[in-house]
Amino acid sequence: KKKDDALCRSGRLGVVYTRTGDQGHSSLFTGERVGKDSMIFEALGTVDELNSQIGVCHSMCCELEEEEEEGEEE
Predict the structure, then answer these.
(1) Is the full-model pTM beyond 0.90?
(2) How far apart are CA 7 and CA 45, in angstroms?
(3) Could you report the per-residue pLDDT of 7-38, keeping only the tens digit for each?
């Protein structure tokens, strides 16, 4: 089996709760508090959306590989 089979089959993501409330600010991974209107959050959101699309593509590739493997078995 390929090393990323587990990744192909996994579908669970953890949930993150910060419990810091919402007062117009949020913490970066460095601990720095910045306004939620900061451009850093726009950039992080864009990267998050890109990562999501990469995940969709990866999932589609895994499905195609499985279909090809099933076709070879017949």
Answers:
(1) no
(2) 23
(3) 555 555 566 666 666 788 888 889 899 998 99
